[in-house]
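Reopening closed ticket. The problem is back. First fold of the pair:
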Amino acid sequence: MLKSLYIQNFVLIDSLDIQFENGFSVITGETGAGKSIILGALGLVLGQRADGKSIQKGSDKCVIEAIFDISKYQLEPFFIENDLEYDSDTCILRRELFSSGKSRAFVNDSPVGLGILKELGTRLIDIHSQHQNLLLGNTHFQLKVVDVMAENEILLIMYKKEFSRYMGLKRELKELEAKAAQTKQEEDYLRFQLGQLEEAELNAGEQEELEQEQEALAHAEEIKGALYKISQLLDGEESGCVQLLKEALSTAESIDRYYPKAKEIAERIRSAYLDMNDLASDADSQKEDVEFNPGRLDWVNDRLNLLYTLEQKHRVSSIEELIAIRDDCHKQLEEINSFDEQIAELNRLISVSYQELLQQAAVLSAQRQIAAQRISEELVRMVTPLGMPNARFQVEVSPKEEPDADGLDLVRFMFSGNKNGDLQPVEQTASGGEISRLMLCIKAMIAGFTALPTIIFDEVDTGVSGDIADKMGSIMRRLGEKMQVFAITHLPQIASKGKAHYYVYKQDLEEKTVTRIKRLTKEERIKEIARMLSGSSLTEASLANARDLLSDN
């Protein structure tokens, strides 16, 4: 419920801070006093778009803040989903508009986008105006009314879950069939690619080894000559360093008896001599292993050319990447071979889900048929006293060809205001006044089955008076026993039914005119209802009549 509304610098409102209570409240005031301005401010804090023109002249910023009691609305999932701070009792919506045209929105002091503010707003307040009466002809709204009366909430949750699964399976099948069709077109090419890559018998690291071998084979003579030269320089009979080291070792050993340091020199020379001797032996041995092999070089060149050709074709630069492509071809061909099995399994799951969907839809349909009959009878009973004695109303529930997110039922509200008139869709035959009364009765009817948000009836009593207005007021008052209800009205019969009465008026200040709102005392209320009965000139008769109206309530 709406606990309070604060407005600052909005159109004709310089500052307004009003508290509200539960039950049925009425709002009255002379035409042009500013009731629509208050509704406009409320609309902005509920997420409607605005511009800088809404700001009071001479101000740079306006602020609108509404505080709600949300203890009965079970809104925690919404707050969690949108990452908002949740208070199980109170919710504060605030909107700030700037003369530059920019605006900011907040939920519990956390900044939010207008989309979130608007979605939350629809769960908190339902502003029922002449424009909203168009909803009565909306098939989705009609179905929602039937489901509320049928108490289908749990059934719908189960059905929608299965429908989501069913549609997910169908999407998966469609994607798989498209993928299968595309890959089957590529199957021959994949097999050709795979054949080439498998025939190449690829081995990781092979390319680097072959490139090194190619270099060695291509320069065999140079390598052999270089190794021979190394061997001669190390261990040649005339000038090899091994022989020189051997001679140096003998010389060092010849003086170690009388020069002790010569022993260390001798050890170092011996170590060098042994290393050089081994190195000379290795060079000579490797020289013998190097041979010029034209046949092997041709094979290595051919093998490398094959690898280079495959790499160029597949736009890669290594055997490892070619191996990855080969393995991917394997995988794709395995998928192609398994597509038929996957498609068959998906079709089986879809069939099972579809049958489950039909069964759940049948249960929904049965509940809706019962509720449809109940709504038809109850609504006629409620609207007959509201100046519609010949009204006939019927909720038609007909099957659709295929189930959708709402089930298998197409719901239409059929109406006739004349005794012998044919039933036709309500939006085609009911007048504006008839639709207003039908909507009032529908909302009163469903209020006992679901936690409705606060309802504001904005002059839905237009075109009625007297006894009909009195009965409409009684419906609103009974509705107020279940929830918070406001009625903006010009009719004293409705105004007298309110538990609380708020009066909107203009006040002329020295420099400007402003809109004010106040809750009327008992005596002020008698005078306001008397004014509504007789006009600006209060008479004893109108005052007495006002007291009678209030005493009856």
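Second fold of the pair, where the issue appears:
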Amino acid sequence: MRHPKRLLIVAGDLFLVTLANLMAVVLRFDFDWSAFAVRSYRTGELLAIDLLVTPLVFAWVGLYQGYWKYAGLDDLIRLVKAVCIRTVCVIVIFYAVGFSGLSRAVVIIDTVLLMVMAGTVRLAPRFKLEMFSARKRVTGARTIIVGAGDTGESLLRELKKGPPPGYNPLGFIDDDPDKKGVSIHGVPVLGNTSDMEGIIKEYRIEDVIIAIPDAPSRSKQDLFDICKRTGARFKTVPTRGELYRGAARIGQIRPVDLEDLLGRDVVTLDLDLLRHTLGGRRVLVTGAAGSIGRELARQIGAYNPSRLLLVDRNENNLFYLESELRRSVPLVSCDVLVCDVQDEMVMRRLFETYRPQIVFHAAAYKHVPLMENNPLEAIKNNVFGTWRVLQIAREARVERFVFVSTDKAVRPSSVMGATKRLGERLIKSVDGGTMCLAVRFGNVMGSDGSVIPTFRRQIAAGGPVTVTHPEATRFFMTIPEAVQLVLVASAMAGGGETFLLQMGQPIRIVDLARNMIELSGLQAETDVKIVFTGLRAGEKLHEELRSDLEEAIPTDNEKIMALTGIEPLDEEGWRRLERLERAAQEGEADRALALLRDLVTDYAPVVPGVNDTAVSPEHKVVGMAGRKRIELQS
């Protein structure tokens, strides 16, 4: 009664049952009614049983819950199963009530006819949809799909049925030689990726959609280069992770962005290990309003902690993060706490009240030039904020303490890098009780204040895009990948380790800028200028992942290595740490920096224009509003 349309469907099935029975009898006796009259077949009784049994079996199998507009192979298989069950039930009931004289030929013909008629009725709306969509598709952009696998097939179906038709798929590209020349839903596989440039020109292709979730970045870069040469737009489907989480569907096509080109292979996670480590635990994330902290909160929330504690001084980002988590993980108890990790009294009260079992310490000042101008704040927050939280966590018998470090801690050239290096030494200096570890990695793409959002704003404004130096390189990974590996490292730790995440090859910043300009549909130097501004205070030309004194040892996870060679603090080191804290509290910057150099012996500050190696012979420096600007010589 709640679905009156279904009553019409049941009535239609009853009509088909009656029609199938009558046609079976007529076909069995070649339209000779006199021959049928001589035989004592109980067709009336058979029809009565059939009319009673068929709708009940169809309802039990679920045929009345489908949506015919999207009927497919699954629905057809379900129909065949239902008709076969119905036939067996009819025969059993027919003989169980004492009837006899059942014609086997009539039953077989009736079964086949019912399958054909019921299947035709159910597939008719889908057939109409496909035919109608096929006619409309010719108005969309001329498109080829890279990847004729399951994802490509699903995407083609989405493109066929989705009004308005934005794409007109003319063919597939696939490197499987067995697929060349075959057709999928009437769309042929035109060739492989080596043929793609010629295919784009021959068929006047406007859009290229890569339907291979998590395809290697090198393959995407090659396809992007082809699209640049031919003028075709390069687009992609969501990643496998987005599809798995339900955050997107196949048909949500988007332009390829920088993260797609620079991203790496998918991280294989030990989900059972992470559920065992995080599930049912009280987890605290400091620096939760930052890029890494926010992603930590999102991913930890997916493993059902008993309580998720989010700490930061940035109330705005905390507010938005809380709203997001309320929607995405509504069953997780989430407490948002606006406070400073340097406030010892507040942090002690927090640990006493909530009793966290696992702490991810991501709170830190990270902007290198800004911290060069505010060294005491960097020391107080990055060193002593870390030390306060670590001390309190040990006293509260926290199970695990995870310190998020950076590649700038390797042979640091900045105050920020030196403070993070000292943080790694503090983690190494803790014995027994709480399991402490540090995780070191390079730049993350899209983090707050990083180069990628800066480039996006500059491109949107029409340029120029500012790059420090034409040879400057950095290591990059995506924020989700970095956080996934941090979680895995935290779960596999035994205590005292410093883990290094596998960052791949360094990337030239100027190449990154050119790619971003071209991904925006513009031409570097023609539409958007690139200006070289020179390295800023504390910045290196090239970052490193480990020093010569450190050795990277493989672990069970190929993307995570354990570092040796990081020395804990000795007695003199602890005394210097106490003097460093007094100097920072008393505002004595010079004395504090001298003590920081004593504690981090390979700390070598970079002075722009003096020891930054930023200006190579093939470049010249010209004055520009009080700052250095490097321009390529003609």
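Update: turned out to be a display glitch only; the data is intact. Confidence is low (pLDDT under 50) at residues 614-634. The two ends are 81 Å apart (CA to CA). Please close again.
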